Automatic annotation (TrEMBL):
PANTHER family per UniProt: LEUCINE-RICH REPEAT-CONTAINING PROTEIN 51, NISCHARIN RELATED
Region entry Disordered, spans: 31-56
Residue stretches spanning the membrane: none
Gene for this chain: Lrrc43
Alphabetized InterPro entries for the sequence: Leu-rich_rpt, Leu-rich_rpt_typical-subtyp, LRR_dom_sf
Gene Ontology cellular component terms for the protein in this record: cytoplasm
Protein name: LRC43 protein
Key words of the record: Leucine-rich repeat, Repeat
Name of a matching Pfam family: LRR_1
Source organism (scientific name): Chunga burmeisteri
Keyword tRNA processing assigned: no
Listed PROSITE patterns: LRR
Length: 327
C-alpha cells in the first residue's frame, strides 16, 4: 500500500537520527525552546545577540546542516534525491519538533513513491492533509479510489501503472487538481471518455493520456472540449494518433490548447488547420502506416549478381522475399 511505502520512505530519510531529529547533539537548544524563560541556566547571549560556544558534545545548527549538504559527508543524501527529501532533512535539523511523529503529516506537500511495487492507494494517505503533489509512477496500481486521496491535491501522476478504469477515481475527485498523468496505462476508449470532462476535473490544466488504447478521436474530443482550463494534452501512443488528420483536428477543436504531444501550437499551425472541425468526414476509422526497410542482412542481394550477356541461354535465378508485420 501507499502507507507502507510511505513508512519505508520516512525510515530511509532517518529524520530522527543524527544529524537530524532530537538527541544529545542538540538537547540544550531544544530544552531552551521549551523553557518558559526562553533560555537554559549556564547558557547566555552576548550583547550582539550571538550565542556563546555550544555545550560540550553538541553541534551548532550550521555544523549539522553542513553534514547534510556536503556530498563528502556520510549523512548526505544521494545526488538524485528529490528537493522534498532534502527539505525534510533540513527541517529535521532546524525545527525537529515539526517532523517528529505525526507532525510530519502536516508539513508534507509533495510525496514521490516511484517503482516501489505499490498496488493499493489506501486511506492512510488522508493523514497528509496538506499534500498537493502525489507521484506514484511505475508501480502496479490497477484501481484508485478518490475517497482515499487528500482533497488538497493539485498534481496526481500515475504514469506506468495498470489502471484500466477511471470510475472509482472520478467518484469524488480532488476539486483543485491541475495535472492528471495517466500515461502508459490500460485505458480503452470510448468507455473511459466520459470520465474526462469538466464535471470531474473543473480545474485541469494538464492531461497526459499517452500510450493507452483510445481509438475514438471524435468521441474523445467531444468530452475534452468541456475542459475550459486545459492547456497541455498528450495523446501520442494511442491508436487514434495514427489518423492522418489527428493533430490538425485536435488543434482546431481545442482552441485554448497551447501544447499537444509536447509540441507548442503556434498561430501559423492554428491558422493552417482552421475549419477542420467542420469536416468530420475526414476523420476516418482507419490508419495509414508507412514502413521502409532500409537493409536486410543474411540474404543474397540480387543487384550484386553479374548481369547476363545478351543472348545468353544460361538459367536465370530470381529471388523473392516475404516480410510480415503483426499489429
Amino acid at each position: 500500500s501507499v502507507s507502507a511505502a510511505f513508512r519505508e520512505y520516512l525510515q530511509h530519510l532517518s529524520l530522527q537520527d543524527f544529524p537530524c531529529g532530537l538527541g544529545s547533539w542538540n538537547k540544550s537548544r531544544y530544552n531552551a525552546r521549551r523553557s518558559p524563560r526562553g533560555g537554559q541556566p549556564g547558557q547566555r547571549a552576548d550583547p550582539a545577540g550571538q550565542e556563546e560556544a555550544m555545550p560540550l558534545g553538541e553541534e551548532s545548527p550550521e555544523a549539522l546542516m553542513e553534514l547534510l549538504r556536503d556530498w563528502h559527508s556520510p549523512w548526505a543524501l544521494p545526488p538524485d534525491c528529490s528537493p522534498q527529501d532534502q527539505h525534510l532533512r533540513e527541517m529535521a535539523v532546524l525545527a525537529p519538533e515539526l517532523v517528529r511523529g505525526s507532525n510530519v503529516f502536516q508539513v508534507l506537500r509533495s510525496l514521490r513513491i516511484v517503482g516501489k511495487g505499490v498496488e493499493e492507494v489506501d486511506q492512510g494517505l488522508l493523514q497528509l492533509q496538506q499534500l498537493e503533489e502525489l507521484i506514484l509512477s511505475a508501480n502496479q496500481i490497477r484501481r484508485i479510489t478518490s475517497a482515499n486521496l487528500p482533497r488538497t491535491l493539485k498534481v496526481l501522476e500515475l504514469c506506468c501503472n495498470a489502471v484500466a478504469n477511471l470510475q472509482d477515481l472520478c467518484a469524488q475527485p480532488p476539486p483543485e487538481l491541475q495535472h492528471l498523468g495517466l500515461g502508459y496505462n490500460r485505458l480503452c476508449g470510448p468507455s473511459q471518455d466520459k470520465y474526462l470532462t469538466a464535471a470531474f476535473w473543473p480545474n485541469l490544466v494538464s492531461l497526459d493520456l499517452s500510450f493507452n488504447n483510445f481509438t475514438d478521436l471524435l468521441g474523445l474530443v467531444s468530452q475534452l472540449s468541456s475542459l475550459q482550463k486545459l492547456r497541455i494534452l498528450v495523446l501520442q501512443g494511442n491508436p487514434l494518433a495514427l489518423i492522418p488528420t489527428y493533430r490538425g483536428f485536435l488543434v482546431d477543436s481545442l482552441p485554448k490548447l497551447s501544447v499537444l504531444d509536447d509540441i507548442h501550437i503556434g498561430p501559423d499551425e492554428r491558422h493552417q488547420f482552421h475549419g477542420l472541425t467542420r469536416q468530420p468526414e475526414l476523420i476516418r476509422s482507419e490508419a495509414r502506416v508507412v514502413v521502409s526497410v532500409g537493409e536486410i542482412k543474411g540474404v543474397p542481394d540480387p543487384s550484386a549478381l553479374q548481369q547476363l550477356e545478351v543472348g545468353s541461354k544460361a538459367p536465370v535465378i530470381t529471388y523473392s522475399y516475404c516480410v510480415m508485420y503483426e499489429f
